[in-house]
Amino acid sequence: MRMDPDYQLYYINWTRTTLTALVPFVLLAVLNGRIICQIRKAEKITAQMVRTLLDQYPSIHFANAVRTDSTYVICMYANCLLWS
């Protein structure tokens, strides 16, 4: 049976190529695409929740600004201490 040219063409070449190369590649591409879609969907939901939270509590804007400014001041102070 292994000497039959049809067997060699279809089973050995096409079936093995399909099962060992094409199917895993397509499956990987589809699953990675679904993961990317879910990540983007989660990012949109998170951004919407943050926007809603910031609209409800405007003091958070001020707290973020203060935290950012104080972090900058601390880093500059540490930098000056390191170089002196």
Concise structural overview:
The chain has helices at residues 5-56, 59-83. The chain has 84 residues and is mostly helical.
Describe this structure in words.
There is one protein chain. The chain has 84 residues and is mainly α. It has one domain (5-83). Helix content is 92%, strand content 0%. The chain is built from 2 helices and no strands. It has helices spanning 5-56, 59-83. The radius of gyration is 29 Å and the shape is elongated. The termini are far apart. The model has no long low-confidence stretch (mean pLDDT 81).
| Estimated radius of gyration | 29 Å
Distance between the termini: 84 Å
Overall pLDDT confidence: 81
Quaternary structure: single chain
Tell me the total number of β-strands: 0
| Separate helix tally | 2
Percent range of helical residues: over 70%
- Report the β-strand fraction as a percent range: under 5%
- Sketch the topology as an H/E string, one letter per element: HH
The general outline is: elongated
Q: What summary fits the major beta sheet?
A: none
Classification by helices and strands: mainly alpha
Spans of at least 5 consecutive residues with low confidence: none
Q: State the domain count.
A: 1
